[in-house]
Amino acid sequence: MGKRNILVTGGLGFIGSHTVLCLDAAGYNPIIIDNLHNSRIEVLDALTSLLGYRPTYVQGDVNDTELLQGLFDAHRPEAVIHFAAHKAVGESVENPLMYYHNNLVGLITLLDTMKLKGCSKMVFSSSCTVYGEPESVPVKESTPTRPAASPYGATKQMAEVILKDNAWCEVQCLRYFNPVGAHPTAKIGELPLGVPNNLIPYLTQTVAGIRERLTVYGGDYPTADGTCIRDYIHVMDLAEAHVAAIDRLFSTSKQLDVLPGDPSAGVFEVFNIGTGVGYSVLEVIQAFEAATGKKVNYTVGDRRPGDVVAVWADTDKVNNVLGWSAKRDLTTMMKDAWHWQENC
Ligand code: WQD
Q1: Is 152 a catalytic residue?
Q2: How much of the chain exceeds pLDDT 90, in percent?
């Protein structure tokens, strides 16, 4: 039997590109669509170098119905991994309509095409931001979601509802925590497009002399050292979790969680994709300095609006049901992040 074609929307992005490599390694054939809004065509060259062949790539937008239908006719994907979305929390506050249009209308257009073309399997890129400020940590998949702190988080919450309500679609919904690091070859990583919003790219650009100083947003939070806590996960671990989810969608042996109620309801499974360990901002800085021998020039400044104090994953369900767990530690994340910064 030939390889299964898997459509990877946003496949030239940070997580998408790493997932393309892992799909190939697992015997799947990745088909990439990307509009290059948050990536560069050079990523395709890097993937070609790493794969030993040029993966199928279509430049375009998931909002383009005609392009999508043509792609499905040409490549007949058996499943979709949907990464393509805007994901900057701050930007979503400044331009909510762009986020609702791109993230939700894009998803709906994709679902319309999948249904029309008879493709019913999706791995969806969700986020721990759906938990808002959790009442307790670590968060389980059953932890109630709270009002999102940004339009970005709201689009992820709404997308999950849309997917749950489309019972014809079998969905593996992956709630990411904080993706960091890069491929060990440093040929792909988190592209620095503009001033970084996220901690690690800002930190590595500061050490590289591109930024003058890192500001730690808040030192007076109710945590051990006063700085926020997050569950940082290596992007390679995250990419491997997507392959585990795709495998599960094609496994006939495992009983997928059918939604409660109507037995004909679809499959909608949620997994926290984190390491299960939370680190504060200061602990991350210390880990980076220990891992690389480089000094981070930082100052502790005001809190950033919208930040939650602490969130990290309970990973029991993903460990036991998906059979996946993160393998790379914070030191490896910091080393690979710095290796990428030195080479990008
Ligand atoms: C982490 C910590 C900041 C920058 C991200 C994505 C979101 C979602 C979850 C996928 C916070 C602090 C940051 C800086 C700092 N990912 N910080 N100085 O906000 O947890 O959310 O991961 O869906 O899309 O945005 O990540 O890296 O921005 O912040 O002190 O210059 O680092 O306050 O405590 P965040 P982040």
Answers
A1: yes
A2: 85
Our count of domains for the chain comes to: 1
In which band, very low, low, confident or very high, does the pLDDT at 258 lie, cut at 50, 70 and 90? Answer: low
Average pLDDT over residues 82-111: 93
Closest residue by Cα to residue 341 from 234, 236, 189, 233: 189
Give the CATH number for residue 69.
3.40.50.720
Residue 18 located in a structural domain: yes
Separation of CA 262 and ligand 1 centre (Å):
39
- Answer whether residue 342 is part of any domain: no
SS (H, E, C) 274-331: CCCCCEEHHHHHHHHHHHHCCCCCEEEECCCCCCCCECCECCHHHHHHHCCCCCCCHH
Distance 199 CA to ligand 1 centre (A): 6
Query: Per the domain annotation, does 155 fall within a domain?
Result: yes
DSSP 128: G
* Ligand 1 shell residues, CB under 6 Å: 87, 89, 127-129, 176, 178, 197-199, 202, 214-217, 228, 230, 281, 304, 307
Cα of 79 vs centre of ligand 1, distance in Å, is 30
Domain region containing 153: 5-180+233-273
Neighbours of 99 (CB within 10 A): 24
pLDDT digits (tens, 9 = 90+) for 148-176: 888 999 999 999 999 999 989 999 999 99
Q: Say if 293 falls within a structural domain.
A: no
Distances (CA, A) of 100 to 62, 70, 118, 152, 156: 14, 25, 26, 8, 10
- Measured in Å, residue 197 CA sits from the centre of ligand 1 at 7
Mean pLDDT of 248-258: 68
pLDDT at 35: 96
Using DSSP, how many helices (H) and how many strands (E) does the chain show? Answer: 12, 13
- CA-nearest residue for atom 33, ligand 1, is 217
pLDDT for residue 265: 54
List the residue whose alpha carbon is closest to atom 34 of ligand 1. 228
